[in-house]
Give the backbone structure.
Amino acid sequence: MAPPQEHDPTNWHKFFGASANNEAWTLAELPAAEVDRKQLLNAAHAAAWHWRQIGDELNRMRALMLLACAHAHAGLGESAMGFAEEMRAYFLARPDTPDWELAFVHAIHAYAAAACGNVELHARSHAFAVQAIASIDEQNRKLVRQVFRHVPAPDARTESMSPAASTVTGQG
């Protein structure tokens, strides 16, 4: 992506927001042993700041999704869960949220729940993520799985919890 040639700050925010966003997602998709967590956090926060300056609500919620993922990856469970809850509520309330994005929502929500130690919420969100990932096309499934592979599987005692038995619904 080439930097803007004009001096309009909006174009620069878009440039730096997209660049930081792409860097953070690239890091989030790496095998865990290869991730520089500080670099991931810095890129995710930079992206969120730039999108907050010029983005719409969808851009800001996607930035929160990335922040939730980065914080979960860094073991910052409380903040990961806060970001995940906010973005999840937004995406589940939108009837036009694409299926691939719902898969990311559930996967990252499960990751945040695991990072903060909420075993039951982790199990429910993990089950929703598995279902959502199974329902998307192969190209998007590969993308979501790059992040979902970092999400630990639920304990054997909570694996039997199905989304249907949960008070949390996959539809909002």
The longest helix spans residues 9-28. The two ends are 36 Å apart (CA to CA).
